[in-house]
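Quick check before the chapter quiz. The format below is the same one you will see on the exam, so make sure you can read both the input and the output lines.
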Amino acid sequence: MSELSVQLAASLPDNSAVRPEWLKTLRETGAAQFRAYGLPTRKSEAWKYTALGSLERTGVRLPGAAESTAVDGATAAPLADSGLRLNMLDGQVLAQTGEPADGLTVLPLADALRFGVDGLQALLESLAEDNPKTVRGQGFSALNSATLEAGAVIHVKAGTDAGKVALLWSTTPAEQPLLFNSRICVILEEGAKLELLEQFQSADDNANTSNVVLQAEVAEKAEFRHIRFQQESDNAGLVTRTEVSQHAASTYDYYGFDLGGGLVRHDLHTALRGSGAVSALNGAYLLDGNRHVDNHAKVDHHAPGGTSHQYFRGVAGGRGRAVFNTAVCVHPGADGTEARQSNANILLSARAEIDTKPELEIYADEVVASHGATVGQLDEKAVFYLRSRGLSEHEARQMLTTAFCRSVSEKLPDAALAEVISQRMMAVMPQSE
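Here is the expected output.
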């Protein structure tokens, strides 16, 4: 293990007094796995293109008891209005604004663990893994489970339209960068609806790292729209893992936008377990400087008649590096599946790098599937055309790259939010070199 992993393992909390017993077991299992394997390295295939050298250099550590208690902090202005807003400071619920809709329950995870929420134990335990090959690459998840306490639980009753819930994530500066672990649990009962907007944007620049695991149980005919926007500082880190379990005729729509962060890694996995389930994963990532953004997406079709679409766009300039790995597995019995993957990228610098790898495995019949990945440069004919219409070269290139990424934001049903995110993308669009 790396020196950083050894140091983090040595500072894991004592779980001997944790209650209830199932939670103690969950935390102890996570601690044991982390002590055995530590943080992932490039020897793991899933982390082949993403090294954790920046965390090693800064010596990031787990917060102490006093540091892990959020008491104050400023958050960035929200991207959009929502019915309910949670300020998530240093991984914990700091404050709640607005009233939840009828049928919507939102609790800090610590309270939910203490009082109990239907389905919470089963959801948390579903993340546990015992395959050595798989566990070896899931060090951040093991660390998250070993410290499981901070976060929130969102529960929507059957037939309820919970509207919009926003999570505003931020961290506070420290003398030495800290690694904050947090867990979000979403439980949608049959026919429930929820739009969750996660915004990662600290008011103060810092080199902290957030390690967030989101687990969602989407029941039959339920609809879950999930928007994740991050614009952290160039020294900050963000590691997320999203696990979604979909039942018959359910819908999961994901929109991810990466406009900042020094080291960013997203693991996104949805399992279509019921017939007729629909999953749409969309994302845009813009990076320059020395920033690194890694998106790993996987869709498992376990039942017949499911549909999944993946649509990601990336722009890299400077010495930025993007990684995109997308996999679809159509399991035996998932006949009639439709699965499509699309990943297109633009390089604006000879020093930038984009590694893209689409994967497709089919073990069923009557399947419609396609995948495509491209990495290229701006069309000089298009640049020339815009310049002939009076635009400067800078304006022409910015317009083309912004339009390229707007194809993702314009998929959002909320036109006002789509325009806000499009303007944010235009403001930070990397420059051609």
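If your answer matched, good. Residues 87 and 168 are 5 Å apart (CA to CA).
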